[in-house]
Amino acid sequence: xxxxxxxxxxSPVDIEKRKQSKYCRFKKMGIQYxxxxxxxxxxxxxxxxGKILPRRITGNSMKFQRRLAISVKxxxxxxxxxxxGDNLK
Amino acid sequence: xxxxxxxxxxxxxxxDEQVRETxxxxxxHLKDKKAKISHEENWGLKKLKYVIxxxxxxxxxxxxxxxxxxxxxxxxxxxxxDERVIRWQTVKLDKYAMExxxxxxxxxxxxxxxx
Lengths: 89, 115
What we know:
The complex is a heterodimer. Chain A is mainly α. Chain A is built from four helices and no strands. The longest helix of chain A is centred in the C-terminal third of the chain and has 16 residues, at 62-77. In chain A, 18% of the residues are buried. Chain B has one domain: Ribosomal protein S6/Translation elongation factor EF1B (Alpha-Beta Plaits), CATH 3.30.70. Helices cover 43% and strands 41% of the residues of chain B. Chain B has three helices and four strands, in the order βαββαβα. Chain B has helices at residues 16-31, 69-81, 95-114, and strands spanning 2-10, 36-52, 55-67, 85-92. Chains A and B meet through loops of A and strand 2, strand 3, strand 4 and helix 3 of B.
């Protein structure tokens, strides 16, 4: 019995796929002001029901996530974005 | 003199003449408060994303102006008193917002010239 026992894995080892590092698109593109008047741009940060996506999904930095939330709420006030939408996408 | 930007929605049942007259009334109100209107945009009749006062559409109008801080208070009261306007929002513009507004205005001017 070779003392070096062969290591048998119970489950196939999934090679850790390179986790695509999230980046804050506002910092990358140098956007300083998030306009509340064009809903198409804001729509990208909402899910199907019209809720604001959390930072861990969009990868925004805290500063721009706050500005984004303010402009989304302003757009909702002006009926450019729905408060609760269905199948927005 | 701060920079402000107001977007307001007017009742869709109004005729074009009444819409112009409403807008003129607010602009005159601002003018005699010594405010300087730097930009106006008429977005026309747009579909609202949710029902406001049992209406599905509304005339949107954007007003960009410079005014004293004290002017805004009674400007808002003016909106409340006028029942033709169903929703309004005044926003103070900081320097980034002003840059964005200038860029947007240039783009609009070029677009209108090229048409």
